[in-house]
Write a structure and sequence with these properties.
The protein is α/β, with parallel strands linked by helices. Helix content is 43%, strand content 22%. Helix 3 runs parallel beside helix 4. The protein binds calcium ion. Calcium ion binds next to loops.
């Protein structure tokens, strides 16, 4: 990342949304490079070297999922996709194609900042390779494979730990059902969503004060799960 304020590449054809994003990002002191189609967005990716990309899935010149895939081929940059309510399926496909998180339009600037901060932290975290994750009362020691709530160790099975490990790597960001199932159980189980319901249910009983109203292990309806991180 640059020493200067993070540079966000904004690929969005709707000028009104672009204006809103620009104002809202500039208010935080973040810098913006903007493109109104996929072609100029991909060109700016090379010339401007942004820290993060905000990608609208409904662009005039290229399919949003193809753009998400292309961005992932070209770089390891965090990508936040913007989707309309009518594009639920596209949003999931874009996440599976390598995008890191999404916002559904319309969204507020508070939500936008929380998502971007989680994204930029993901980058900082992979550089620091931090081995302990903490949020609220929850502490996960990745190196020693131990989990604590308010300082007390909680017994976790190996599969539960693998699920937690993936969520920690993406702390504050959504992880799709497909990603979780593929990484924990393998490609042949990517449609077995009941595995996740069972194991996430068990984890919530172990880690949440009120499993019915989770504070750490959040459900993203129809998409996946998100581990809450401070500020997300
Ligand atoms: Ca659009």
């Amino acid at each position: 990342m640059n020493d200067a304020a993070p540079l966000i590449l904004l690929i969005e054809d709707d000028s009104q949304t672009r204006r809103f994003l620009k104002t809202s990002l500039a208010n935080r002191g973040w810098r913006i490079a903007e493109a109104d189609c996929a072609k100029s967005g991909l060109a700016l990716l090379k010339s401007e070297q942004p820290d993060c990309v905000i990608l609208d899935l409904g662009l005039p010149d290229m399919d949003g999922i193809a753009v998400a895939r292309r961005l992932r081929q070209l770089s390891d940059l965090p990508v936040l996709v913007l989707s309309a309510r009518s594009q639920e399926q596209n949003k999931i496909m874009a996440l599976d194609a390598g995008a890191d998180d999404y916002l559904t339009k319309p969204f507020g600037s508070g939500e936008l900042h929380a998502r971007l901060q989680a994204l930029l932290r993901r980058v900082a975290r992979s550089i620091a390779a931090s081995e302990t994750f903490e949020t609220g009362q929850l502490k996960i020691d990745l190196a020693r494979r131990k989990v604590f709530i308010a300082g007390n160790e909680v017994r976790i099975t190996p599969i539960e730990f693998r699920l937690l490990g993936i969520l920690v790597r993406h702390a504050g960001l959504v992880v799709t059902h497909r990603q979780l199932l593929g990484e924990v159980w393998g490609a042949e189980h990517i449609h077995d969503q009941h595995y996740l319901r069972i194991y996430m249910g068990q984890l919530r009983h172990k880690l949440e004060v009120n499993p019915a109203r989770p504070r750490y292990l959040l459900t993203e309806v129809g998409v996946g799960y998100r581990l809450a991180a401070d500020g997300s």
